[in-house]
């Protein structure tokens, strides 16, 4: 990272950042630019975000201001605050030492930086000097002595701008930050829709699209975690934007805790969208000399619809958010013990299952919940959480003995030995545990209010340094005690009884410290996030962990909806997806093995979650074929561009993954339910070269044909069919 220019009225130009007179700023990507300027009053005013344009800075809103609205209400403000006549919802709201909440942040200077400054203690995107350029703007509120340092960065290849900021109290009195949204999107008057993801346990990532109406509409998490209910993401799209065309703005908050998204269409028809920390979980005290940082938010722009927006997020998050060495590495095909055994196991049973895995060609065996607890064994979900010591009855010779034996097994059809993984849920404690007996004060609690249990557990207060240190040590010791290659880090309840609203954010900072420390100490481990399925599928934790369990619902049909929804923001490489038994344990549905497997192959971390011994010989042979196919498909899912050719709502969903360069790809296509004597719509390809010829399933097509007349797949009169077809571009002279 090179810091280049300090304040001044000069013009500055580095690759992708242009500054005129020290007062007008443009962050330039290949397919968009983001521009703002300093107005005559020292306010930061937004000018443009979209297809590259040279936009003249504008000073005022509508020509004839009348009534109660002031200039500030109508201005497209980069950091809207309150108290001086802006009546829209603000990004920041700070109670100053004088007791009021009026602030007036005025521009004092800027710096231009090649690369991107780190965000200490928080997850964030990163990149080298060729990948990203930044502008740092300083504003000051003279009255209170508060200084705001805004960091804008542009990733030119991804049409993405990121922003975070720090408020420093340079005054003499305590202040209280009541609201600190990280990013404010300003849109002109128009017909806008908002798109977002909602759900619950076992039905994550349902897409909602609704019209932005005059007034405020939004959603949030107050769970303490990002949650199943809403994801920290929103897209604002033109009402005629589709999957493949039209403008799409995506906002994604790089955070794993409570958050709020507010989209406000004011009476003037201008739209302001704020994304950031939830104000009800903030109230952050800032003493003189202290600083507070609002986490990073990412904004991408695409003129190629929601699909283009998703691909920008996917590439950006793979290349510049996920810091794991596993991001692009083929993930070992795994078997997770949960649905096959639940809590019913011991070392010998585990070893037998591990042998089965190795025999059939599975590369990684993951022991899920139930292996720990000495005084309070974890034989069910009632006890043991917090005591990260292997249970001596289940492991009479210790965990290391089992892991050593399992990892000495050679895997059928490969030159590798079996790998071994474990499940942990470090942030939680059962009252029935030695940890809680020793430290009842370590859990989140509010005075003498009842400590509400969910799944018989309480939440450890990770805002406490001693709790963080305990976890770093306890989990670190388990990982150092045996040859463990994979960790599934679970989190199965929301936060209640916070001792103060700001504990929610302090907890997140503590969690990031713990996760940062453990992932740095064990960089070769494949870390896998989970929160009762996809309850914490967010960019915050994907900074440290390359993947997350997408849902506890492993039904093939439901998973199509869940995985397509999740892919709106998150790269398929980050999704864990497993083949489970039928009837499915969550919804009792029976679907063919290959259908379940093909759905699961669209996740970067493919595996099984069933009892292999319950399969007959024919099914075992098919499992071997499925493993081989999944390993062929995996590079496309890990590194390819995803084109959602048809959504699950169509009954014939299809996903095309094209490798960079466009020479090879794979199509996964599905027929969810039989439709007798009706045709399936053709699949219109995207991302191909019109002039080139492509081979699919031994037939040759031109790019034009595939994109404009479409591929017509034949489906039988049966439910739950699927096809995996490889796509190859033929040499031009063919
Ligand atoms: C959660 C997870 C499951 C499993 C269980 C174990 O529900 O989402 O995958 O690990 O916990 O208790």
From TrEMBL:
The residues that hold substrate are 201, 368-369, 455, 488-492, 530, 552
Q: Where is the signal peptide?
A: none
GO MF, one annotated term = alpha-galactosidase activity
Keyword field: Glycosidase, Hydrolase
* Any Gene Ontology biological process: carbohydrate catabolic process
Residues folding into a coiled coil are: none
Task: Name the protein family.
Answer: Belongs to the glycosyl hydrolase.
Name of this chain's protein: Alpha-galactosidase
This enzyme's EC code(s): 3.2.1.22
Q: Name one Pfam family in it.
A: Glyco_hydro_36C
Q: Which Gene3D superfamilies match?
A: Aldolase class I, alpha-galactosidase from lactobacil brevis, Golgi alpha-mannosidase II
Q: What class of enzyme is it?
A: hydrolase
The superkingdom listed in its UniProt entry is Eukaryota
Biological source species? Cutaneotrichosporon oleaginosum
Q: What InterPro entries does this protein's entry cite?
A: Aldolase_TIM (IPR013785), Alpga-gal_N_sf (IPR038417), Alpha-glycosidase_related (IPR050985), GH (IPR017853), Glyco_hydro_36 (IPR002252), Glyco_hydro_36_C (IPR031705), Glyco_hydro_36_N (IPR031704), Glyco_hydro_b (IPR013780)
Q: Which residues form the active site?
A: 490, 552
**Biological function:** Hydrolyzes a variety of simple alpha-D-galactoside as well as more complex molecules such as oligosaccharides and polysaccharides.
Q: Which residues form the Glycosyl hydrolase family 36 C-terminal domain?
A: 653-726
Q: Which reaction does it catalyse?
A: Hydrolysis of terminal, non-reducing alpha-D-galactose residues in alpha-D-galactosides, including galactose oligosaccharides, galactomannans and galactolipids
Glycosyl hydrolase family 36 N-terminal domain span: 42-287
């Amino acid at each position: 990272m090179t810091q280049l220019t300090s304040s001044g009225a000069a013009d500055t130009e580095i690759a992708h950042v242009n500054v005129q007179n020290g007062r007008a700023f443009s962050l330039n990507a290949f397919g968009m630019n983001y521009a703002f300027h300093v107005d005559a009053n020292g306010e930061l005013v937004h000018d443009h975000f979209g297809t590259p344009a040279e936009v003249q800075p504008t000073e005022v809103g509508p020509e004839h201001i009348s009534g109660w609205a002031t200039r500030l209400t109508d201005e497209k403000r980069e950091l809207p605050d309150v108290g001086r006549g802006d009546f829209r919802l603000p990004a920041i709201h700070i109670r100053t030492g004088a007791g009021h909440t009026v602030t007036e942040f005025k521009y004092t200077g800027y710096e231009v930086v090649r690369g991107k400054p780190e965000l200490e203690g928080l997850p964030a995107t990163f990149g080298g000097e060729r990948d990203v350029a930044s502008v740092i703007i300083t504003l000051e509120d003279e009255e209170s002595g508060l200084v705001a340092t805004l960091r804008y960065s542009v990733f030119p290849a991804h049409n993405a701008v990121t922003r975070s900021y720090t408020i420093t109290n340079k005054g003499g009195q305590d202040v209280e930050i009541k609201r600190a949204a990280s990013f404010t999107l300003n849109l002109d008057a128009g017909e806008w829709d908002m798109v977002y993801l909602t759900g619950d346990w076992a039905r994550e990532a349902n897409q909602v699209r609704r019209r932005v109406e005059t007034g405020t509409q939004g959603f949030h998490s107050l769970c303490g975690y990002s949650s199943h209910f809403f994801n920290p993401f929103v897209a604002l799209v033109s009402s005629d934007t589709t999957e493949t065309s039209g403008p799409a703005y995506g906002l994604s908050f790089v955070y794993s805790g409570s958050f709020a998204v507010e989209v406000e269409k004011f009476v003037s028809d201008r739209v302001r969208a704020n994304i950031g920390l939830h104000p009800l979980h903030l109230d952050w005290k800032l003493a003189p000399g202290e600083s507070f940082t609002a986490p990073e938010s990412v904004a991408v722009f695409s003129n190629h619809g929601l699909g283009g927006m998703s691909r920008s997020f996917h590439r950006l998050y793979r290349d510049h958010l996920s810091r794991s060495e596993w991001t692009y590495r083929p993930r070992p095909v795994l078997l997770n013990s949960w649905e096959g055994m639940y809590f019913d196991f011991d070392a010998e049973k585990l070893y037998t299952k591990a042998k089965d895995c190795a025999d059939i060609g599975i590369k990684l065996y993951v022991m899920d919940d139930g292996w720990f607890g000495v005084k309070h064994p974890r034989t069910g979900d009632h006890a043991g959480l917090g005591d990260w010591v292997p249970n001596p009855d289940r492991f009479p010779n210790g965990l290391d003995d089992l892991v050593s034996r399992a990892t000495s097994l050679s895997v059928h059809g490969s030159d590798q030995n079996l790998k071994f993984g474990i499940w942990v849920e470090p942030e939680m404690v059962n009252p029935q545990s030695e940890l809680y007996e020793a430290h009842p004060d370590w859990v989140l609690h509010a005075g003498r209010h009842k400590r509400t249990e969910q799944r018989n557990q309480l939440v450890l207060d990770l805002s406490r340094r001693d709790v963080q240190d305990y976890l770093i040590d306890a989990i670190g010791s388990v990982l150092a005690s045996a040859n463990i290659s994979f960790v599934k880090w679970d989190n199965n309840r929301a936060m209640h009884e916070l001792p103060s609203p700001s504990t929610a954010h302090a907890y997140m900072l503590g969690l990031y410290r713990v996760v940062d420390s453990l992932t740095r100490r064990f960089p070769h481990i494949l870390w896998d996030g989970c929160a009762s399925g996809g309850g914490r599928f967010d960019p915050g934790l994907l900074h440290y962990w390359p993947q997350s369990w997408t849902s506890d619902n492993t039904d093939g049909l439901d998973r199509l909806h869940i995985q397509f929804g999740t892919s709106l923001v998150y790269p398929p490489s980050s999704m864990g997806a497993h083949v489970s038994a039928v009837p499915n344990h969550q919804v009792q549905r029976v679907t063919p093995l290959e259908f379940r497997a093909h759905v699961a192959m669209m996740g970067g971390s493919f595996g099984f979650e069933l009892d292999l011994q319950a399969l007959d010989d024919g099914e075992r042979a098919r499992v071997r074929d499925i493993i081989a196919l999944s390993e062929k498909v995996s590079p496309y899912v890990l590194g390819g561009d995803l084109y959602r050719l048809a959504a699950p709502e169509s009954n014939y969903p299809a996903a095309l993954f094209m490798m960079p360069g466009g020479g090879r790809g794979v199509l996964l296509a599905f027929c969810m339910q039989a439709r007798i004597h009706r045709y399936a719509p053709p699949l219109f390809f995207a991302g191909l070269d019109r002039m080139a010829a492509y081979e699919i399933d031994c037939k040759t097509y031109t790019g034009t044909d595939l994109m404009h007349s479409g591929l017509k797949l034949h489906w039988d009169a049966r439910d739950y069919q699927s096809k995996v077809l490889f796509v190859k571009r033929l040499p031009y002279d063919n």
